[in-house]
Amino acid sequence: MQTQCLKIPLIAGKTGRFLEWASEVRGREREAFEAMSSEGAVAEAIFLERGGAGDFVLYYMRARDLARASEVFAASDRPIDRLTRVMIDECWDVGKIQSLEVLLDLHPPRSDAAER
Questions:
Q1: Average pLDDT over residues 16-37
Q2: Domain membership flag for residue 103
Q3: Residue 26 Cα distances to 11, 21, 111, 115, angstroms
Q4: Is residue 112 packed enough to be buried (19+ CB in 10 Å), middle (13-18) or exposed (0-12)?
Q5: Could you report how far apart the first and last alpha carbons of the chain are, in Å?
Q6: Total count of domains within the chain
Q7: Which residue in 66, 112, 104, 89 sits closest to 17, CA to CA?
Q8: What is the mean pLDDT of residues 49-58?
Q9: What is the pLDDT of residues 65-108, one digit of tens each?
Q10: Which of 4, 12, 44, 62 is the most exposed place for a label (fewest CB within 10 A)?
Q11: What is the phi/psi pair of residue 40, to 5°?
């Protein structure tokens, strides 16, 4: 598994639009899970950091292959992925995305006994 955490600046004045997108995705959980599955993603989390220097998204993803997940997302025709790409174009300052150093990402192995 591979893990990434990105710090993404939001374009000034676009935080409200970003929050609308997040709310819509929360209401379409099943579709989001299907998209994640097709990408090989096993976990995603998005956090909002508000501050004097502007608002930032902290984006965490764990996937079998991050490059492959990105390729599948970029080529996807799923409505939720199209919606997300529009939000990214409108809200994220993609030229200033920073990759944060992942220091620890613990996930205990799954066992049959734990699933019962």
A1: 96
A2: no
A3: 22, 9, 29, 25
A4: exposed
A5: 24
A6: 1
A7: 89
A8: 95
A9: 999 999 999 999 999 999 999 999 999 999 999 999 999 988 88
A10: 12
A11: 80, 15
How far is the C-alpha of 57 from the C-alpha of 6, rounded, in Å? 8
Strand partners for 96: none
Find the Cα–Cα–Cα–Cα dihedral 96, 97, 99, 105, rounded to 10°. 150
**Does residue 58 belong to any structural domain of this protein?**
yes
Three-state secondary structure string covering the chain: CEEEEEEEEECCCCHHHHHHHHHHHHCCHHHHHHHHHHHCEEEEEEEEEEECCEEEEEEEEEECCHHHHHHHHHHCCCHHHHHHHHHHHHHECHHHCEEECCCCCCCCCCCHHHHC
Give the CATH number of the domain where residue 16 resides.
3.30.70.100
Say if pTM beats, i.e. exceeds, 0.85.
yes
Q: What is the pLDDT of residue 109?
A: 78
